[in-house]
Specification:
Layout lengths: L15 E10 L4 E8 L13 E6 L3 E6 L10 E6 L3 H7 L6 E8 L12 E7 L3 H13 L6 E8 L8 H9 L3 E7 L17 H4 L6 E6 L2 H14 L6 E4 L15 E2 L2 E2 H4 L2 E3 H4 L3 H5 L1
Parallel strand pairs: 7-8, 7-10, 8-9, 10-11
Antiparallel strand pairs: 1-2, 1-6, 2-5, 3-4, 3-6, 11-14, 12-13
Length: about 280
C-alpha cells in the first residue's frame, strides 16, 4: 500500500491531477466521488469542513467540501449535487476519469474546542456532507464529549445521503439520532417537521452545548435563532457557509457577506459573527 505520509507535499495553490477511484450514487442527483492523486505526490490533508477546488478542462473550478474521514488520507471524497455545468459533469464521472484539484481551503469545525461539551450536529439535506467529517471525527474520540447528537432533516425519503453511515451511526451507542422529514411520505413512519421540531429531544443542556449546523440558508438562520432562544451561546453555534465560497482565497470578492469574505474568514463561522448579516443577505 502506498505510504501517503512519506510522500512530499505540494503548494495548495497549485492544481494537481487526481483520478476517480470510486463512484457512489447517493440519490438521483447526488454522487460521492473518491479520488486518489495521479501525480505520485501526497494526497490533500484536510480538516473537517475544509474544501478543495476541483476542476475540469473547459468548465473551470468549483469549491466543494471534503466528505470523507480526515484521518484516512487514502479516502479523499467529495459529495456533489448536480446543479450547474461543472457539477453536472462531475456527477457524471466514472472510475478512472481525471480532475484537477487544489487545496485545502477554509476554516474547520471546532472539534477540539467542543471537547467537554454536548456536541449537537444539525444537518438539512445535503448539508450532511460537510458535517460527515465532523461526525466520524467525533465518534472516533467520543469519550471527549459529554454527548453527541445528530438532528438530520430532509424534504423526502428519496433525498437521504450516506444511508449506510446513518444506519451505523444509529446503532452506535455514542450517537443519539433524531431524524425528521419535512412533510408526510407514505414510505416514512418517523417524525414529521422541520429540524427545529426535534430540538426538545436533542438539546440536553444548552449552557454546555456546542452546535455545528449545515443546510439551506433559511434552515441555518432558523436553527441559529432557535438555539439562541433556547440558551445556547451564539459563539458556540457554528455553521458552514460554503455556498458563498468562490475562488477559495478571497481574491475575486464574490464571497463577500457583510464585512466578511467567506473564502478567507470561513466557511465555518459562529452565529455571533455571521448571524447579524443573515437578514441583509436574504433581502
Amino acid at each position: 500500500m502506498l505510504d501517503f505520509a512519506a510522500l512530499p507535499t505540494v503548494d495548495p495553490m497549485l492544481p494537481r491531477p487526481f483520478r476517480v477511484v470510486r463512484v457512489l450514487r447517493e440519490t438521483s442527483d447526488v454522487t460521492t466521488l473518491t479520488f486518489e492523486p495521479a501525480d505520485g505526490l501526497a494526497t490533500i490533508a484536510f480538516g473537517p469542513a475544509q474544501m478543495g477546488m476541483v476542476g475540469l478542462p473547459g468548465l473551470g473550478e468549483v469549491p466543494i467540501s471534503f466528505s470523507s474521514d480526515p484521518a484516512d488520507p487514502s479516502q479523499l471524497a467529495m459529495t456533489i449535487r448536480r446543479a450547474g455545468a461543472i457539477t453536472s459533469a462531475l456527477v457524471d464521472l466514472s472510475a478512472g476519469d481525471s480532475v484537477s484539484m487544489r487545496g485545502p481551503y477554509g476554516t474547520e469545525w471546532p472539534m477540539e474546542a467542543a471537547e467537554g461539551h454536548h456536541l449537537l450536529i444539525v444537518a438539512g439535506g445535503l448539508g450532511l456532507a460537510p458535517l460527515r467529517s465532523a461526525i466520524v471525527t467525533a465518534l472516533r474520540r467520543a469519550d471527549r464529549y459529554r454527548s453527541i447528537s445528530l438532528v438530520y432533516g430532509r424534504r423526502e425519503v428519496s433525498e437521504v445521503v450516506f444511508a449506510d453511515d446513518l444506519a451505523a451511526w444509529e446503532a452506535n451507542p455514542a450517537m443519539s439520532m433524531h431524524l425528521t422529514l419535512d412533510r408526510a411520505d407514505p414510505d416514512w413512519s418517523g417524525p414529521i417537521g422541520l429540524v427545529t421540531s426535534r430540538m426538545d429531544a436533542a438539546l440536553l443542556d444548552p449552557a454546555s452545548t456546542t452546535a455545528m449546523v449545515c443546510g439551506p440558508d433559511v434552515m441555518m438562520h432558523a436553527v441559529g435563532a432557535d438555539l439562541t432562544q433556547r440558551g445556547v451561546a451564539r459563539g458556540k453555534i457554528w455553521l458552514t457557509m460554503e455556498r458563498n465560497m468562490k475562488c477559495g482565497v478571497g481574491l475575486c470578492g464574490h464571497c463577500q457577506f457583510g464585512p466578511l469574505f467567506i473564502c478567507k474568514d470561513g466557511p465555518v463561522l459562529n452565529w455571533a459573527t455571521a448571524g447579524p448579516f443573515y437578514l441583509i443577505a436574504e433581502v
